[in-house]
Amino acid sequence: MASYNTRQKTRKIYSWVGRPLLDRKLCHQTYKEISVKIKGCSTQTHIQVGQFVLIEGEDDQNPYVAKLIELFEDDSEPRSRKCARVQWFIRFCEVAPCKQHLLGRKPDAQEIFWYDYPACDDNISIETIIGPVRVVALAPDGVIPMDLKNEKTFFVKLSWNEKKFRPLSPELFAEFDKLQGDIPKGQKPRAKNAESPSWHTAENVVKRIESRHSASKSCQISIHSAMPTARKKLDLGSSGFPRTPDAKISQQTSGASLDSPRKTKRKTTFSETTSHSKRPQSDGIKTSSPALKSPEKTGEVGLFCVDDKKESPEYHRILRTRLPAVKTTEISETNLTPTRGGRRSSEVPCVDLKPEYIKKREAKEPEAQNVAASTSHRIRRKSSLITLSRIRQQLRFLENNKNDQEEKEFLSAAEDSDSSSEDEEPFALAHQRRNPCRTSRNLQPFLAPSVQTPSKTPKKALKPRTPQSVTAKIRSRSLATPEPASVLEEARLRLHVSAVPESLPCREQEFQDIYNFVESKLLDQTGGCMYISGVPGTGKTATVHEVIRCLQQAAQTNDVPPFQYIEVNGMKLTEPHQVYVQILEKLTGQKATATHAAALLAKRFCNRRSSQETTVLLVDELDLLWTHKQDVMYNLFDWPTHKEARLVVLTIANTMDLPERIMMNRVSSRLGLTRMSFQPYTHSQLQQILVSRLKHLKAFEDDAIQLVARKVAALSGDARRCLDICRRATEICEFSHQKQHSPSLVTVAHLMEAVDEMFSSSYITAIKNSSVLEQGFLRAILAEFHRSGLEEATFQQIYSQHVALCRMEGLPYPTMSETMAVCSRLGSCRLLLVEPSRNDLLLRVRLNVSPDDVLYALKEE
Amino acid sequence: MSNRKSKNSNLLHGECISQVQRTLRERFCHQTPHSNLFGVQVQYKHLIELLKRTALHGESNSVLIVGPRGSGKTTLINHSLKELMEIEEVSENVLQVYLNGLLQINDKIALKEITRQLHLENVVGDKVFGSFAENFSFLLEALKKGDRTSSCPVIFILDEFDLFAHHKNQTLLYNLFDISQSAQTPIAVVGLTCRLDILELLEKRVKSRFSHRQIHLMNSFGFPQYVKIFKEQLSLPVEFSDKLFSEKWNENIQSLSEDKSVQDVLLKHFNVSKDLRSLHMLSMVALNRVTVSHPFLTAADLMEAAQLCSMDSKANVVHGLSVLEICLIIAMKHLNDIYEEEPFNFQMVYNEFQKFVQRKAHSVYNFEKPVVMKAFEHLQQLELIKPVERTSVNSQREYQLMKLLLDNTQIMNALQKYPNCPTDVRQWATSSLSWL
Fold this sequence. Notes:
By secondary structure, chain A is an alpha/beta fold. In chain A, the strands form 4 sheets. In chain A, strands 6-7-8-9-12-11 form a 6-stranded mixed β-barrel. Chain A is elongated, with a radius of gyration of 37 Å.
């Protein structure tokens, strides 16, 4: 197979042939034909709409094949640009390796497939067109004619829609036949082209330059935009070159010429794969054009900038426009990337349709595809809401039979396709194929820079459309966490509440009950509700998670039918109705407003549907979903009662009598009586939990564990407390043994200290440490309470009492302002409860501590 | 010649003085992490160890620093963070988020602020975001993505923590504590509050997720340490430019701190309040008296400053009143004595005043009623008297019920210092029956 030396591009001049046809709807001009002229060569290549062309891609052995559908001048940008819309064909090697087996036979070398995938970007820049090519349609079982078996001809037998290979529809055949008929006419340019210098005679051209609208540009632009100084350099660098009237193209190629000597890592690997003839070329450049060598020496930055320049000036324009950065990149990217790695909705329309429907659908397909395709590029061109809505109307008009939802989905796909492409690396890789021109993606400073590496083997792993497109994460740490060094550190790690134990001790019964409940519902393919209550820290959520984990394992081994698991937490919602949004998003990936989501969910759960797996929904902190009308709770408990819903709802809250207390009868009746209550852990259970966590780790004395278990069980039975105390105790132990450097056990004394630290009231120490005047004031309060027999007094009363006390003890009595300051200080740390201070003398004061405590604290000294 | 020399040295001196004032004022007014910590070494150790474990080991933690106002909570956390950031492995490895309950008054604003400080907003922009709910789920998702070993730890500092507990449902606190208790991005939540009952403010499930670590700062130092702090706070640092002057200054401070009268002043101040901020206030007032002609602090300066600090503000107001207004206040005092703190109205006060004037007509001018009314209203404007109910338009002003916001002792003290007080009035003040 010949190598299409796409990068040996010479100065090509693209110009329109014929008069422009104004497309009124989109306000841009379309053309029927374009001529490609190679600088320094008299030959011209004419390419007409409807012809098949080769388009620059990642792999220059196998440029992309496409059919021209439309040529137009894109003037949505400050400087108009020549663009084309194409119908893609796909090579067998571009099909995702995991799906290649679907073909079921060995493909022919020249075989390509009609790419029947409406969601892929079909908008390309004219500059990426390499030249025309011939494509012949054959019957699925047709044999490739020997006489045509040269590199210039491709054969289409089947179409590929990312799911399966299908024979070409009759309409498509007719279209191909028409083109075949046209061949004598169309052959002229092609025949010319066969000897045209575009790639064969290119070797004779003196300035044979390796050009590449490479992936590296993406980074370059971002660098560029980030460095104003770099731009300056760039101007210096480019000023040395002669400027032809057609400045744009000359700059482009001159930039490209500079690109070649630059040997980045990626480049070198690339040139290794290309034919040997290329080696001398680059050498030739080095020797023949010393002028070009100098910029090379200016270093990477300079090269980047010059290289950047060839990315047609509008890039800079774009970057300079007042649009927010995010928007800018979006627009520029959409304009320039003929991404075929389209957006695939997570639920691709069902493939196993009824036969007649297939037929109808296939008949419709080309048209629908065109419409869809044009939609997408129109959106890009205008990227305005008006156009969007207009297109939506148009679409509705054209495809009345298509249901609304699909269409909406598609439109939204077109809208956020680019954002979705940028989040995750694999997606970005997939996105990179069919990207003759790339633009900056400076959106995500956190993401790995490896986005820029082009995939060598074009993966066909097309990115699924992810509506929850932008996912952010906290940047990862630069330094690895050290391994726990001592026994105590290890123990601390295991005692952290977040450490997930292999099994949950002491909750076997509850685990079994929940497991049985969910399993039975799964097996029966019905729905149901369960209410789980218990005080905080008794392992409710952990147990349910464990159940789900076990069930998921069981589902993998086909013990239970597969199910979908969704979790929502009342505390993680801003508002009860948001629960619908979250459920819908987790269920289907759709985004909607709360009311719309509620409607969609109701439709989903209440309508009869055919095969569908059960959904298990965990609602944590149920009490926060309470609304005045209780419609959220009502719906949550109502859906499982529908037979077709197959929804199992597990709800968790703290109070046992929640259904009776806050729910209306109709809500609590739907919740049913499947209730479970988690009792607080007893001391032996807590002990067991600790022991199981510290398995094979001798960090605690046995007595110490028992002590903490008993302490916590007496207080709350909260396992979290227990773990926290133990963790604190290890710290205290470590701290006290720091000097001795000997590994030690956590003793009862350490634990007592930790317990005291956490549970002892701070009021008494606060009173003990307060100033003399503050203590005197507290005493005066007590005296005043004693005098009046009430638990409340005004500031004035206390002040006079205070003055009297001071007189008795012969102390100088404080001024009113000082006493007021003391009062507000004690009020601010809530030893006292005071009214707002605007009441001045009349503000009422109460003690927030028991008088006995105050007396005790004051007596100590 | 000698004149110029002295002028020169004066100029030099002046520069020194202004430098001293600047250095010390900065120390008193700003909570710089450079200032020293006093008596909180144990707490400091605890906190720094905790933060280090989060930063280095990725262990999530939550802690509350509790202490009365001016006890050095912010200084403590600032010190700890400064030391933490000086560790090489940590400085690049930790994100910090500062929130203040007085600024982030609801969860929505707090979320915006967190997003901004974590630099997530350029991902967010206004592209996918709009609603609070989306913002919220986005942030939670972001924090959930991480895990102990690979994510960059985040330290959340919540100043005025108690105010966050008043947010709706305590959603923010719940989620922060929940993250700190689950295997997500490692975070350390440090709350600063002056409320001792902070745990009672937390909802039970929020409370359960909080690790119950509390660091108490209680100003637990005694008087000798207080004097030492005073000395240290007023001493000039070693890196002061004029060595000679700073030596002299420090010597002076040293001798000052041993002075008996200064110690008395400090003890009185210490007895009123142990909080270091009030000590700073005292020192600052004293420092203002330092000039070129008076280059060193003296005991008298401090005594005067202490007097200024402990002055009763209302007594000061009373000093500026006219004799008529004083008379009215005395009349009110008598009414209070007679009717046992029951509210009074203008007419009662006026009658009381008239009785006095009729007895002592030779010494006190009998004012017209509108004049007396005006004086009465002036007292109300000064908030020395306060209406019991809200003023309504249609009620007659003469009969509106009022309460006196001055204590008897305050009145008597003020009267003693009142300049040119007629003897009759003074006598009348001591006893309402003096005219008999």
